[in-house]
């Protein structure tokens, strides 16, 4: 295996994905590559991934490495922090069987992860899943006890200008299969005209489909400047102590924002705001709702998500995976029925035309003569 090309380097994979061009080698520092990150790398049409951290730690069966290797993108794994800092963006490197060369000099090496190796590592990770599940449940319960004030009114909901009352609200998160799910509910968006809420990169997902986000909620680490400029309202998710690193970015763009200090995830507070301001229905798309999702986000439990969903109850419809529920296929019998329906009035009108009648009579005579012969 030999690969040569320019490198793009970033500690945050989702930030790196925005800069990738076809033929690049992606250099990341991402333990347990998740599904969303892997798909963003695939979309960048890269040649190779070099990861400073273990792509599969074995804690749980993360899907990212499998997605990459299925697309014939190999991973040079666990090359270490030192090499990650030595490699600079734009440099041309050569990788031969896991060994990394720059200007003909060996600078580091890692384990080559192909389909077979990834499959074996994931098999071992599945064996560890029950242990990780025990930890996850314990952490969720512990944090739920500490964070129950989140849904009991102890966390102050900020005053917003968006009018949620008696409206449908669509909350879009750039999670698993978000594009397919969004494509499936386009008719719902057109018919119901819901308030469109993008959680960080979910705002760019809306733009991608031709919709302008009404509200953007998040820590602002993966949303584009374009989306921020187009949104009607921006809510920056802050730590419970009030620190809001994402606020500076918004202010640097000359935009106003509301700061919401709260535990949990940004999608949790997006749902809670919609609920508290009397939304009629909340539709969540691409959200994180299971153990694997949360482990891929680096969270040890899902206390706030559990509490919020417990509170908003029947007002929430989770559209994650809705594309699998119904897949419309155009059947050939419907095509023939459509053609017949379209031709029917044409045939009726034609039969009433004197010239067409003469033509038909002429053809009948010719057929009779042919048959007599």
Automatic annotation (TrEMBL):
Keyword Nucleotide-binding part of the UniProt annotation: yes
SUPFAM superfamilies: Thiamin pyrophosphokinase, catalytic domain
Positions of the SteA-like C-terminal domain: 320-371
MF annotations from Gene Ontology: ATP binding; kinase activity; thiamine diphosphokinase activity
Gene Ontology BP terms: thiamine diphosphate biosynthetic process
Sorted UniProt keywords: ATP-binding, Kinase, Membrane, Nucleotide-binding, Transferase, Transmembrane, Transmembrane helix
TM segment ranges: 334-353
Pfam families recorded: SteA-like_C, TPK_catalytic
InterPro entries, alphabetized: Put_SteA-like, SteA-like_C, TPK_catalytic, TPK_catalytic_sf
Residues annotated as domain Thiamin pyrophosphokinase catalytic: 193-233
Record-given protein name: Uncharacterized protein
Organism this protein belongs to: Romboutsia weinsteinii
